Amino acid sequence: MLANQGLFELLDEVYASGQPLVEQERAVLLPAPSPGPDRTRYFDFTAQPLLNAAGATQGILIFAVEVTERVRTRLSLEALNQELSRQDELLRVMTESLPQITSITRPNGSVEYLSPQWFEYTGQTIDDLPDCWTLALHPDDTETARQAFQQAVAESTAFSVEVRLRRHDGQYRWHLSHSVPSFDDAGQLQHFYGACADVQDQRLLAEELRRSEQQFRFLAESVPAIVWTATPDGAIDYLNSRWTYYTGISVEQSLREGWANLLWAEERETVFSEFSYCIQTGTDLDMESRLLDVRTGQYRWYLHRAQPLRDEHGQIIRWFGTTADIDDYKRIQQRLEDKNAELTRTNQDLDSFVYAVSHDLKQPIHNMAGIFQELIRTAFFRDPDAVKLIAMFEKSLHQIDGTIHNLSELVRIQKLRHEQPAELVDLAQLTEEVLLSINDQVTSSRAIIHTDFAAVPALFFVQPHLQSVLYNLLSNALKYAAPRRRPHIQLRTALVEGRPVLEVQDNGLGLDLQRFGGELFQLFRRFHDHVEGAGLGLYLVNRVVQNAGGHLTVDSTVGEGTTFRVVLPASARPA
User: Band of the pLDDT at 339, cuts 50, 70, 90?
Assistant: First the structure.
């Protein structure tokens, strides 16, 4: 085995040269003492030639000392040093690759190490190392940093401090410096290992959030209603001070114990059911309930409204809500409903009264008319003024009869409003029927009537009501025509902002709107006395139009004519 390891060749060289040979840590492969792989052993050996008197080599003296353990120990140490060197290099690369500044500081405050990020940020050089922190710290933060470091040294604990450090361009930025202590084998404080991170943006954001929260709280406290917020699962986590003002219970107690015990017992289940539905589905909350004021023992009505705030993924992150006192409104609303019901009953009673009176008066009036006609036929009047008196009496009878008829018509239209539904009415056909009913007036006055229903040919309306509107407007246009001017009437439709408009324009006497405009649609109000009338026509038209959700407008010039515009809701126009 030794023959193939070069040992004999070395001895031959020593024997031939006569020169001694010294070799250290020579590896020699020796056979194992038991079955198994051969073993490598290490030896320090010396080969000394033995010379005779003539100086010729006659033998070799060999000294060998096994140093296997020493070699193995040295090799292990070298491998360990290489690994430590590699680890140090990895740690250095990692430290210098971090965005944070890293440092090693002794307990006396001297800096042993600063990562390159420090010099890149501050613009300092290695010569500034002894005073690096003093040069970089904002003057207002120097004492804060010094006290934090001294306390950490005294207590041998970690410490964190926020300070402003000057950048190479002179700008100060906030940094969070955190350091932890290290100790020697005796437990004595040895170093502080620190990391310093730029937190300028986070600090500005935190300050903005604080300002926003202050503004929200100020706004919430300024609103004359209860303002509240809730978590995504519906747990109330904020109430403004108005809660205590209205309920008499502190905010802290309500946040801790909830608000269920303040609800009206009969409404509690309904309120929680609706509230839970909104929380689970994410729909806006809009409900009314009563809450107890514990100081008075009285319940008041409140309107609760809330909307969810969602993130960019649509997930609810918070609920924002208000609770407004509407008790006065509810009480007024109830009184109005009671008053409306009372007025409805009164109107019904009045309608019944008017209908009964007009019905009961019709027969006596007819009887009086018959008796008067018989009296005229059979009696002989010697007084020359009797003819005038007869004419005046006959005119009065006609006026009474007309008034009773108009009152009956008013009641009939009022009843039709509740009993007859709207239908599609062809305006051309309806106008033809109305003109046929006033044909004597049209013929006697030689009126010219033009119609144009191209914009809106038909309307959804109660037909008798629309017929009454047309009848009164057209008959008024004929009745109040200018004496020396042939009547010219235009009947047309228009569409204004989606609403149908029916216009009746004449060239008659006109009205002084500045003087009489406020009285135009009043009951029994008349503005021309040279023709017969009871002052009910425009009142009926206005009432019908208002009941349908529309309104009337009038343009008029004295001596030139008048235009009535019936503006109806968009629903009156067929789709």
Answer: confident
